[in-house]
Amino acid sequence: MEYKDYYKILDISRNANQDEIKRAYRKKARKYHPDVSHEKNAEQQFKEIGEAYEVLKDTEKRAAYDQLGTRWRAGEEFRPPPGWNFDFGQGGFRETSVDFSDFFENLFGGTVRQKRHHRVRTAGEDQQTKIAITLEEAYQGTTRAIHLQVPKMNGNGQRLNQTRILNVKIPTGIIEGQKIRLSGQGGTSMSGGTNGDLYLEIEFQPHRLYHAEGRDIYLTLPITPWEAALGSTIAVPTLGGNVDMKIPAGSQSGQKLRLKERGFPGQSPGDHYIELKIVTPNANTETERSFYHQMAQEFSFNPRTEMM
Questions:
Q1: Exposure string for 111-126, b = 16+ CB within 10 A, e = fewer
Q2: Bridge partner residues of 180 (DSSP)
Q3: Is residue 276's pLDDT more than 90?
Q4: pTM (2 d.p.)
Q5: Domains detected in the chain
């Protein structure tokens, strides 16, 4: 009988973890599924993929298979090592719908009772999309209705798109880049298996006042020259409402102040950072211009001293 290189069949490394094995299997199964594939020898390829997955997804079978070592090459004549006897746990026989090769049966044949001529039921494809929400929705939590174009297979094996509406709960304090998993709302199985999962990646809509970095919120706050010079207490807008904040006397443009734990809520709440921006009023009247002339005479301040 011929040696089967299960890692090569799935195009993965021998160090692949279970998530990588699962992704590789699903990708290959979609490509070679006999109901939809136009690849040459699709049915045989599909059987080999199912057999490889049956071994590598199972910790005990994989460990036993790995004991054969790496000296074998796919297609080489193979015989099990002397005294080979792989016992699949204490549960006795179990049934599977995969039609396995002689190679598999010689290694694990005593552990599986097969049901011939039935195709394996593969799970549907996991899907991912983005959902744009406001900072207020992320801060407070909400429920959003989303419209999805979901691929379906009709009775003739044609792939069609169907619109589906889902009401999605947006949890309080979710941040940009986080994903919401909707179990069973992904792609439909082409062979009667379970549906895949749908992952919604959060992104934020632009906001007129704030921007977010992780759980922290940032705001540029305009202040007057006298508020900066003399100090003041100002009502600062935050996602949770206005907060009175003290502006220290002698503040400068670009200076940052912090409102602790006023960012996005969570186990470790974010902070709200305020960057000060001094805004100089226009001198539109003679009185206003006269006031600026008086300031120029009274102050010996030169902001360009260090440039000289």
A1: bbebeeeebbebbbbb
A2: 200
A3: yes
A4: 0.58
A5: 6-114 (1.10.287.110), 127-204 (2.60.260.20), 211-298 (2.60.260.20)
